[in-house]
Give the backbone structure.
Amino acid sequence: MSTAARSLFSFEDTFVRELEGLYLPWQAAPAPAPRLLALNAPLAAELGLDPEALAAPEGVAALVGDLGPDGPTTVAQGYAGHQFGGYSPRLGDGRALLLGELIDVDGHRRDLHLKGSGRTPFARGGDGKAAVGPMLREYVISEAMFALGIPTTRSLAVVATGEDVLRETALPGAVLARVAASHLRVGTFQYAARLKDREVLRRLADYAIARHHPDAADAENPYLAFFAAVVAAQASLVARWMNVGFVHGVLNTDNVTISGETIDYGPCAFMDAFDPATVFSSIDEAGRYAFGNQPHIVQWDLARMAEPLLPLIDEDQDRAIAAATAVLDGFPAQYEAHRRRGLQAKLGLTDAEPEDGPLATDLLDLLHRGRVDHTSAFRALAGVLRGDGAAAGALFADSAGLAAWTARWRAQLAAQGRDAGEAAAAMDAVNPVYIPRNHRVEEALAAATAGDLGPFERLVDVVRRPFEEREGLESYAGPAPEDQGHYRTFCGT
């Protein structure tokens, strides 16, 4: 590694050393004129990195993969995947590279990974590059998710490469530097299974257990316990998505992490009007990954993870299938418990009562029938408890239905002994004022693509403090005008 790169990063390489066969050594394509567009200084500090050094020319070069002739072994990771239900045995990092692992200031191991760094042997005909807009999109959405308290990969930096990439038109190119607990996915296990080498599969499972779910190592059946831990992590994650109205958009098995972090912010978006059938992705024509389908499809993806684990769970296939199925069948109850607790918190309720479930469900039905904005509605309900129902009343066309529901809600709060003011304050702590509104995201990305980073930087500042209402930011708190039509998102490849 060059002296400059070595002074920036203290990389470790456990993935490369322990999991040969699950990657291909590769180097990033040269960037003709790298220029820093966004640097996540708080995240850099978490990683024990110097933001000023990263922003210097040597740091910017490193953030597009130029680590010098003696740099670490950078690799394209292999994984398989079910994409929209169809199995692809060899996907992998077609435009991405793992630079190495960093130990953050809290002692946690985290990957530093590039996206848009050029074609690899996994590229499948793509150019391996990325445009400025989609990379800045991942930056702002992942920062919003982090601020909302949702497990997520994060963006360390976006660097313009100084060359154009061809999509529908020529667009300025960029590389994203992404940080993750790891990039192990359901698809990683599918890829290991296709190699038909039990030892590779076992090494992968042992590595994943040690890195993400170490308690499983002490269980009577470590690999079954590991599967159960991944199921539990994903049940919690999806419930968190649902409680903020997040639509991932492309829940293929290669986008379901072992760590339980959200990964791959491609055609993702947040709902405005509540509707379980909401789809934003231009390629999801059948609605496979619609908002309301997310719990079911993640359970389906987890079933695909169980399949390669079966030989490790039990030598007897029938016993292995029975054991894994029992774990997988517990996913809906775990998800529903997380979803219910999240909704209770959003309504200021504290104790799990039988009445809470129908109360939340009936509110969601009111939102759906009236096409009410999901984020605004939950935030406005705290005002009702403070004696100001104007904001909520303006959202709901069905005033009688809202009044009847509100009476039931107040009665439930009273039955729990909740003070109205305390409940309202608790609601404000979990119901955001600001999310990355779709029209604001598009405005920011269009401006940045044209060379003006001001709107993007402003949007990042807004979403990093989602629960704190601030003067002058009213235009960031509401959805796009109805006349803007249906919003569509694109993968960016």
